[in-house]
Amino acid sequence: MTTEQAAGPINPWSVAQQQFDLAAERLNLDPGLRKVLREPRRELIVHFPVKMDDGSVQVFTGYRVQHNLGRGPAKGGIRYHQDVSLDEVKALAMWMTWKCAVVGIPFGGGKGGVVVDPKKLSVKELEGLTRRYATEISIIIGPEKDIPAPDVNTNAQTMAWIMDTYSMHVGYTVPGVITGKPIALGGSEGRNEATARGAVYCIVEAASHLGLDLKTATVAVQGFGNAGSIAARLIRDEGSTVVAVSDSTGGIHNPAGLDVDRIIAWKKEHGTVQGFPGTTDITNAEILEIDCDILIPAALENQITARNAGNIKAKVVAEAANGPTTPEADDILHANGVFSIPDILCNAGGVTVSYFEWVQDLNRDFWNEAEVNEKLKGIMIKAFKDTLMMSLKEGVNMRTAAYLLAVQRVADATAMRGLYP
Ligand code: NAD
Cα angle at 27 between 72 and 32, to 5 degrees? Predict the structure, then answer.
């Protein structure tokens, strides 16, 4: 039974395993290797207390999953969200393994999350939660073991608290334990924009392959946080017109175009994109089906499903988010001629500059933004071209092509290392 035929909500872990199975089957992967790569190596579940501002104690649940360490330490973000689950974190960790392999950086895949709506916590409570969560997962993280980074609802400040907590435990400053830090603490120039910048490099390559003129293209962006709002700004800088954006409260639309900079300022002031003058309110479901050339999902998983994939009008879907499209929806998009740039390629700019940050931290040698962006561009364009070539050679969509590249690389590394003991 496929994910979407099953009753209830779509489980991201089933989706991730389904995507892996497809690639493993095509690669005719050894059955033993298949079993190894199909499961995470480690899953840590923690329940930890936090003293709230009113003096009460609340217990929160958090996770850190390491999917595969074959090619290097685990790497992957930490998410704060009320809907975080172990299965979601496992899926995100597995996607990180493939993502690092697609862009050829020497990391395995990991991910973390805490079940919390951070909007309901004060800054002090958030700091307490972060420091205690960091303490609980410190038994498996470290600059040579597992290096977290920002994800949904976490940012440079969160990373600074985790770096400080870990450093306090070991008694000296360890910037390389985490990436996405503030520049002043060993963060990298360009990291904040890296996910969106990498996605836009992919869109530029896709447009050139498809003969799509970005100067006249229209764009819709679902999710207006780190990945989405910066992607909107950078695609606007390519000459495209952003016609719709959304956040968790809903979206806004104006077919004549939106002033991205003013909407970023508006969201900062009002906490939502909605209500921006001269726009029509739309829902998060409607934004996906809006008339546009390029759709950038930059929010959460399972947004494009068998139910709405047939109504998508965009010619290109650029997955800044992780897991926004289900396997059934993938098939529908492909059959309809929509060119999807899969998450494990499209949003790999974030982990690539995280890798740069880690290298800079370990060497105590820092690069300027132009250097970071140039190196990022080289890696993203090569990864895009490798994936496109595989897709044309094998006659498969870009996601399957990216999986074929990635799974083969991880399988080779795992096989070469052999089975211990
Ligand atoms: P963020 O917290 O900065 O922003 C998330 C945005 O999504 C917010 O604007 C929020 O309002 C919106 N949102 C939440 N629920 C929504 C919903 N149901 N519908 C529409 N919008 C919704 O997070 P981010 O770092 O930008 O992450 C967004 C996506 O990008 C995630 O899938 C994440 O895994 C992926 N990603 C992020 C990075 C990174 O470096 N930050 C790297 C790779 C991939």
Answer: 65
| Structure-block tokens of residue 21 | 């199975």
- Pocket-forming residues, ligand 1, beta carbon under 6 Å: 150-153, 195, 222-228, 246-248, 284, 298-300, 320-322, 347, 350
Q: For residue 1, what pLDDT band results from cuts at 50, 70 and 90? A: very low
Domain containing residue 282: CATH number: 3.40.50.720
How far is 393 from 404, CA to CA, in rounded Å?
12
Residue 21 lies in a domain: no
CA of 92, closest atom in ligand 1: 34
Question: Tokens 């829902």 sit at which residue?
Answer: 283
pTM: 0.97
The band of 9, judged by pLDDT with boundaries at 50, 70 and 90, is confident
Output DSSP code: residue 39: S
Domain count, the chain: 2
- In this prediction, residue 185 has a pLDDT band, given cuts at 50, 70 and 90, of very high
- The answer to the question of residue 354 being in a domain is no
The CATH number covering residue 142 comes to: 3.40.50.10860
